[in-house]
């Protein structure tokens, strides 16, 4: 009884906190389970409600009601806008929608800070609730008890709506079989709009009511989003009551767990999330039927290119030695030769010779051309320090480190078909390994790089079996859990990582044994460039080898590969380990370039940036991933320097523009609209489009 009495208040706090998470997670589960949108802006919708409640609350009942109405209405309108923004991407899969919503979250978070300020505003509640009551001999805030009652009533009301009303039947039908719903005359798009509006309203209402419990602030949205994702994974997508139980369990871990076992509580949530995903590998898949091979939606650039080809002065095609019509296409499948679906393009038949001007080129000429272009690019990059200032050279070094992380994401997402949001975990392992080695006096660059890569390989060998057995959205969630666990360790293991303060002051890296430490930005950049070039060269050689073709086959025709006796799981594990080694090298370069390391350098935001860089590049283009990383660093640090305080806004705009205008990435700009190998965002199965609902393009 004494133990229960000592922890009674934290236990009740856990119930209140868990019910708050339930209200938020209910909207997130509704949006993903019905509309198929993995809404990474859901925490921002909560923040909209929290700020509205703080702005309207004046300590009276009228202020509370006004704040609740305003926060719910504004967040519901934002959810409706999100529906209009995400619906054109329905055929592109969950990855494109997740990136879009993350970009919108960055934009919305920046706008909220600009409007309400960076400091946490005070939240006032009515006097009748701004008191405490006696609970089993303890004084407890009356507002939290009132919130518990409201949340339970909301759970009961939501269950009744979903189970007993026509609107609930339409929502369930949209989740289970949208085609059948369309056949009954109900527009799935209208249900899509209503669901995201309701999800936004739930998040906004939770923000208003939860502001006195979790005050509004710049970091609140990300924290609420992460905890809500944990609740959704643990509770599943089917039962509101299962979600409620999962939310209360998460709330208890966050409050009672911190009081009982403060050293373990930060790891328990994401560990439980990972275990649930591994035990139920389809726990995060929307219940509706999915098209296993979605048709990519036309993008604006492809539409413009197609329209340009239909202009009157472009309709007359000149005859070439290859003939006209389909034979007038090239060997690249864009304009002069074999269609993209020919055996030479897919690798299932004999390769076709390269053609230049209608003549087959000699193998030596083709090899020289392949080597000459990278050599010229490498030479140009070597000359950059001579024309740039020291700060820009330092940014270029950071772009190379992030570029290797993006290349590792490209290897997994584009070539292995394992979309990842947790590649910062091996990145962190490599970074902290290098920092610890440098602090111990091991400053030789080759030693740091090799040991960082080996440490990342060991980490991936441990976590890889759980990752490679999953597919689609579940891979995203498992890797996210692994990445957040790694971030929690980085923030808590102060004896090794320095905790939230990070590590700084270790000796500079030496390029080779017997040389002096590199302190000039030019020397550090040259070292990072050489390491990156070697890592990228090895990656390209592997991808163009028979092993790379086996990996491509495992991604494109996994069932046939398994039926042929190929150990697909082993191929994917090797790819996961190789990608981890690349990420570990990128982490090592980050320490060398920055000369400091903090948990923010290995957090969720960096993982999202790496995924965006891979998408900008084309998801299958290694060089494109490097270009995408350079563009992100340029936007985040250089362009944002000219407009201080608006870095998240600029990055959010970059996310949105890249998703809409570059569905095949930079690599797709030089390919035609019919090129099946152009890459793109359709890496996760998309909900099948209903026959009577047109998807806007």
TrEMBL record:
Statement: the UniProt record of this protein carries the keyword Phosphoprotein: no
Compartments (UniProt record): Cell membrane
Region called Disordered, residue ranges: 319-358
Highest rank taxon of the organism: Bacteria
Polar residues bias (residue ranges): 339-349
InterPro entries reported in the protein's UniProt record: ABC_transp_permease (IPR001851), LivM-like (IPR043428)
Membrane-crossing segments per the record: 15-38, 45-62, 68-87, 99-117, 142-163, 224-250, 256-279, 371-388, 394-413, 449-468, 475-493, 524-543, 571-594, 606-634, 646-663
GO CC, any one term: plasma membrane
Cited Pfam families: BPD_transp_2
Protein's recorded name: Branched-chain amino acid ABC transporter permease
Organism, scientific name: Streptomyces doudnae
């Amino acid at each position: 009884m004494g133990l229960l009495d000592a922890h009674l208040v934290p236990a009740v706090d856990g119930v209140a906190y868990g019910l708050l998470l339930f209200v938020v997670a209910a909207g997130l589960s509704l949006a993903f389970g019905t509309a198929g949108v993995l809404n990474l802006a859901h925490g921002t919708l909560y923040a909209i409600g929290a700020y509205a409640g703080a702005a309207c609350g004046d300590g009276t009942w009228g202020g509370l009601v006004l704040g609740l109405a305003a926060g719910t209405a504004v967040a519901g309108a934002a959810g409706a806008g999100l529906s209009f923004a995400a619906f054109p991407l329905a055929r592109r899969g969950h990855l494109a929608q997740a990136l879009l919503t993350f970009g919108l979250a960055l934009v919305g978070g920046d706008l909220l800070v600009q409007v309400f300020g960076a400091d946490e505003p005070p939240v006032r509640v009515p006097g009748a609730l701004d008191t405490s009551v006696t609970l089993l001999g303890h004084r407890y805030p009356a507002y939290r008890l009132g919130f518990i009652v409201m949340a339970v009533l909301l759970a009961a009301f939501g269950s009744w709506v979903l189970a007993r009303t026509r609107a609930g039947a339409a929502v369930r039908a949209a989740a289970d079989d949208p085609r059948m719903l369309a056949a009954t005359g109900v527009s799935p798009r209208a249900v899509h709009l209503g669901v995201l509006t309701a999800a936004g309203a739930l998040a906004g209402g939770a923000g208003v009511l939860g502001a006195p419990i979790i005050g509004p602030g710049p970091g609140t949205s990300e924290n609420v989003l992460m905890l809500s994702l944990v609740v959704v994974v643990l509770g599943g997508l089917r039962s509101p009551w299962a979600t409620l139980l999962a939310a209360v369990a998460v709330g208890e871990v966050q409050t009672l767990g911190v009081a009982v076992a403060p050293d373990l509580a930060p790891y328990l949530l994401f560990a439980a999330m990972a275990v649930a995903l591994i035990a139920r590998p389809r726990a995060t898949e929307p219940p509706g039927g999915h098209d296993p091979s979605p048709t990519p939606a036309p993008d604006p650039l492809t539409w413009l290119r197609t329209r340009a080809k239909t202009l009157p002065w472009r309709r007359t095609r000149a005859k070439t030695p290859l003939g006209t019509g389909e034979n007038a296409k090239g060997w690249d499948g864009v304009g002069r030769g074999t269609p993209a679906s020919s055996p030479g393009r897919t690798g299932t038949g004999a390769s076709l010779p390269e053609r230049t001007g209608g003549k087959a080129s000699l193998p030596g000429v083709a090899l020289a051309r392949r080597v000459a272009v990278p050599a010229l690019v490498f030479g140009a990059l070597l000359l950059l320090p001579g024309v740039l200032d020291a700060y820009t050279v330092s940014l270029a070094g950071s772009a190379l480190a992030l570029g290797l992380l993006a290349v590792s994401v490209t290897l997994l997402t584009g070539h292995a078909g394992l979309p990842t949001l947790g590649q910062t975990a091996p990145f962190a392992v490599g970074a902290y390994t290098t920092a610890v080695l440098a602090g111990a006096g091991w400053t030789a660059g080759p030693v740091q790089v090799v040991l960082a890569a080996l440490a990342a390989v060991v980490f991936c060998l441990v976590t890889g079996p759980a990752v490679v057995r999953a597919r689609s959205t579940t891979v995203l969630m498992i890797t996210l859990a692994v990445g957040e666990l790694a971030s929690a360790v980085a923030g808590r293991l102060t004896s090794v990582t320095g905790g939230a303060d990070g590590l700084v002051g270790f000796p500079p890296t030496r390029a080779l044994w017997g040389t002096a430490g590199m302190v000039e930005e030019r020397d550090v950049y040259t070292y990072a460039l050489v390491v990156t070039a070697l890592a990228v060269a090895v990656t390209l050689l592997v991808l163009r080898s028979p092993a790379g073709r086996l990996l491509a086959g495992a991604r494109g025709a996994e069932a046939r590969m398994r039926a042929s006796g190929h150990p697909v799981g082993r191929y994917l594990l090797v790819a996961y380990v190789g990608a981890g080694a690349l990420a570990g090298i990128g982490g090592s370069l980050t320490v060398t370039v920055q000369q400091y390391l903090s948990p923010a350098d290995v957090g969720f935001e960096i993982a999202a940036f790496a995924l965006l860089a891979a998408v900008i590049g084309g998801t299958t283009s290694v060089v494109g991933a490097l270009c995408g990383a350079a563009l992100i660093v340029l936007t985040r640090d250089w362009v944002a320097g000219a407009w201080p305080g608006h870095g998240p806004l600029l990055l959010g705009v970059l996310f949105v523009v890249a998703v809409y205008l570059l569905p095949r990435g930079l690599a797709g700009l030089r390919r035609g609209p019919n090129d099946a190998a152009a890459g793109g965002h359709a890496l996760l199965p998309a909900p099948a489009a209903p026959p009577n609902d047109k998807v806007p393009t």
